[in-house]
Amino acid sequence: MITLRAAELVQKADVILYDRLVNKEILAMARDGAQKIYVGRAVGDDTTHQDATNRLMVHHAEAGRDVVRLKGGDPTIFGRGGEEAEYLQAHKIRYEIIPGITSGIGSAAYSGIPLTHRQYASSVAFVTGHEDPTKGEEAVKWEALAGSVDTIVVMMGLSRIGEICRQLVQGGMDPKTPVAVIQNGTTPLHRMVTGDLTDIADVVGKSGITPPTNIIIGKVVDLSKEIGWR
């Protein structure tokens, strides 16, 4: 999925710096002659990868080219869009930030899961499930989160799903709280499995679900049985 404004700029760009999860159909929108440069970063890549991407943005912009930094989802939802904008600002490069459709919202909608609902959820939190090992402690306080929000959307957390669920239960969340794990949301490969905080890790293990995924935790997950439309 892509916004009209983003599609317009992709079609006009001289250079497109694109990430790992960008759909090939979106890249096909580029005009003839546009330079498409892969700058995707996988889990485990060192931090110098981001430095190289920053330098490429500035290099092509200073050369007078129209540059699109194309990300999967929304650039400012765990997409380093803020960091890259800071770098451009420091180098006096003009830029425009285009809102995107974050996978946390898109995958839920395509699964028939409303992240908020007047009867079940008046709050939602988007959190990262991928922790930075250099920090020495978890960035997300799962036990505190357990009692403070109705719906939790975990992005990039599949490998830690068992530990995340354990900490939420330890923080007081009902062990039978529904959980959905959605793979390749909004694409033809869209797939979902469900369970609760006590068994979802086992369900995932038996299902063969692999990244990219989003994890949705909360009562609203059960609504997929009623209003799921895929």
Automatic annotation (TrEMBL):
Keywords: Methyltransferase, Porphyrin biosynthesis, S-adenosyl-L-methionine, Transferase
PANTHER family named in the record: S-ADENOSYL-L-METHIONINE-DEPENDENT UROPORPHYRINOGEN III METHYLTRANSFERASE, CHLOROPLASTIC, SIROHEME SYNTHASE-RELATED
Protein name according to UniProt: uroporphyrinogen-III C-methyltransferase
Keyword Membrane: no
Top-level taxon: Eukaryota
A molecular-function term among this protein's GO annotations: uroporphyrin-III C-methyltransferase activity
UniProt record, GO biological process: methylation; siroheme biosynthetic process
E.C. no: 2.1.1.107
